[in-house]
């Protein structure tokens, strides 16, 4: 894996650990960091030996939010940003949409302050744990902007609409315990135990599971949050059971069960995704 300016990476136990690494700026978010995070996700997606991805930060912070060092025009996005139909796209949203599309489980190990984009980038991740020192803040109204990174979609689904509005209206900073109480994070741990726990969770998720099944399940679960009828789930369930049921994945899953041994699934997410993937770009089937 190549070197990055704002990140560092290491691989442990089939997991890629991504460290936000601008310690002198409390890992404050920049356009370069956004671009590098997307690049490392793209690279990891094609590395079949990587089964899960863990995010954490160097130093005492996870990410203190956008780098405000340029002053009052920090959020003036007219320069150097991607445009679609003449609309300048939010860089945080470009990141969270890429996280959303991941084929691999994403685990956040929040070591310290996670504010602004530092908090919203966590929302598309599948499992969030934090240290006792962690703090979270959706501070956009206090900066004269609005919730970004598609958080108006993600946050209410995780904590409920009333709590999401409370957090964003007030812009208040909440503790690790408060984050756990509202289900923003699943566990609060001593900082020194954080990465070991993240690796244990990653292993629990992936050690005996088909990576093809995980990739499909991740997209099915997330995308059904926006479905308006269970028929939408039935349509994709039917496709998945039909194609995987005749594949090497299902054959190995059944054989390993009958032979009372751990499975060794043959499928690779880099090249063996079913023919209907990505189904959300297709019209409804009859």
Please explain how this structure is put together:
The model has no long low-confidence stretch (mean pLDDT 92). Helix 8 runs antiparallel to helix 9. The protein has 286 residues and is an alpha/beta fold. The chain is globular and about 55 Å long. Helix content is 38%, strand content 16%. It has helices at 31-45, 91-100, 117-120, 151-159, 161-170, 176-181, 194-206, 211-224, 230-245, 248-258; strands spanning 7-12, 15-20, 52-57, 61-63, 83-84, 87-88, 106-110, 113-115, 127-131, 135-137, 173-175, 187-189. The strands form three sheets. A six-stranded mixed β-sheet has the order 1-2-3-7-9-12, with helices on both faces.
Whole-number count of domains: 2
Task: Note the total helix count.
Answer: 10
Q: Helix/strand/pairing class, anyone?
A: alpha/beta
List the secondary-structure elements in sequence, H or E: EEHEEEEHEEHEEHHEHEHHHH
- Major sheet summary line: 6 strands, mixed
Multimer state: single chain
| Strand arrangement in the largest pleated sheet | 1-2-3-7-9-12
The CATH topology of the largest domain comes to 2-enoyl-CoA Hydratase, Chain A, domain 1
User: What share of the residues lie within helices?
Assistant: 25-40%
Distance between the termini: 44 Å
Low-pLDDT segments, ≥5 res:
none
The gross shape turns out to be globular
What do we call the CATH homologous superfamily of the largest domain?
Answer: 2-enoyl-CoA Hydratase, Chain A, domain 1
The tally of strands reads: 12
Strand content: 15-25%
What does the average pLDDT come to? 92
What Rg, in angstroms, do the CA atoms define? 20 Å
Instruction: Quickly name the level 1 CATH class of the largest domain.
Output: Alpha Beta
